[in-house]
Amino acid sequence: MTGEPANTANTSARRVMLGMDLPGNRMERLAELAHRAPSTHNSQPWKFAISGRSINLFADLSRWLSVADADQRELYMSLGCALETLLIAADYEALGVDVVYFPSTSDDTHVCRVTVDEQKPRRNDSAPTLLHALPRRHTSHIVFERDRPVAEHELAHLSAAADGEHATIEFLPAGPERALLPRLLEEIERELYADDSFRADMARWIGSGAIGEGWLQAKFSQFKFAHSGAAKLAHTDAELLESAPAIAILSTAHNRRYDEVMAGQAYARAALIAEHYNLRIQPFSAFTANSSGRSTLRQAMHLDSRHPQLLFRIGHGAPATHRAPRRALKDILLKMD
């Protein structure tokens, strides 16, 4: 199945196919599907405003982790993830799209306006079948099967998730440089986790239940994160990275808000491609959490003038048994004047 007519008559069929309870209104349905996108620490930092045939995507600054993501880079990457998921949903519904990035010169929180047109062809790089992976997509936090490689054609498809012009995804070959990454991650995370304000910001977010789990378990996880030693937390993540048969760096030619959004679009597509092949994926934001980490990663991986936006691992492992919670649709929709 590559797409369906862009009307509401087949809404029930789409629900059965995707295994999701989706709104009957097409524009709300697109927003709901975009809302299933990945985001940093499951922050879901977005709002959607529907106006006729257009969906406007805004940053929700109340969901910004102001210490862990001080420069808002991960926030804008998350918004890029929502945008790409929205566009893939439009691909699935056989809709053409017109995308305007940052339509308001005076408001950087207005990230884009997407106008759909059922009379126009789908975009050139449309990927309608990837939407089937959306209900299963999740971030993995388990040790991967170390001796089970990712197939070359799967790596090629994942690399093609980036357009190659604004953003690129490069898988690191085995060797001393890649072997260095787990130790480098451990050093960077030790420094981050030793920062009381960083730990407090993350503990607050975990305790809110945003990552998942019930209230009591969330509070326990909050306490554990706040009081576990920096070395222990960092070592755990280093072991996860070390287990990966494939590690990729997502980078951009420039380092503007637009580039951060484009990087998010590439990651969202890569996450769906990974799920399509029943692969697990996990990003490590510590490498790029601040300018110091990004500079260290750029030098270690010889990225020259390119700007690292995210490092992530790919591999095989059991799927998660639960999904991170999502806000209700009514909580992410804005009314346009």
The total count of strands amounts to 9
Structural class: alpha+beta
Give me the CATH superfamily of the largest domain.
NADH Oxidase
Describe the oligomeric state of these chains in a short phrase.
single chain
User: What is the general shape?
Assistant: globular
CATH topology of the largest domain: NADH Oxidase
What amount of the residues lies in strands?
15-25%
Number of helices: 10
Number of domains: 2
Rg over alpha carbons: 19 Å
Distance between the termini: 38 Å
Mean pLDDT: 88
How would you sum up this structure, described in words?
The chain is an alpha+beta fold and 337 residues long. It has helices spanning 11-18, 26-34, 73-92, 152-159, 176-193, 196-207, 215-227, 230-242, 257-276, 291-300; strands at 46-51, 54-59, 96-101, 110-117, 167-171, 246-252, 280-284, 307-315, 333-334. The strands form two sheets. A five-stranded mixed beta sheet has the order 3-4-2-1-9, covered by helices on one side. Strands 5-6-8-7 form a four-stranded antiparallel beta sheet, sandwiched between helices.
Summarize the structure.
The protein is built from 10 helices and 9 strands.
List the keywords.
five-stranded mixed sheet; NADH Oxidase; 337 residues; alpha+beta; four-stranded antiparallel sheet; globular
Task: Give the arrangement of secondary structure elements.
Elements: H1 11-18, H2 26-34, E1 46-51, E2 54-59, H3 73-92, E3 96-101, E4 110-117, H4 152-159, E5 167-171, H5 176-193, H6 196-207, H7 215-227, H8 230-242, E6 246-252, H9 257-276, E7 280-284, H10 291-300, E8 307-315, E9 333-334
Parallel strand pairs: 1-9
Antiparallel strand pairs: 1-2, 2-4, 3-4, 5-6, 6-8, 7-8
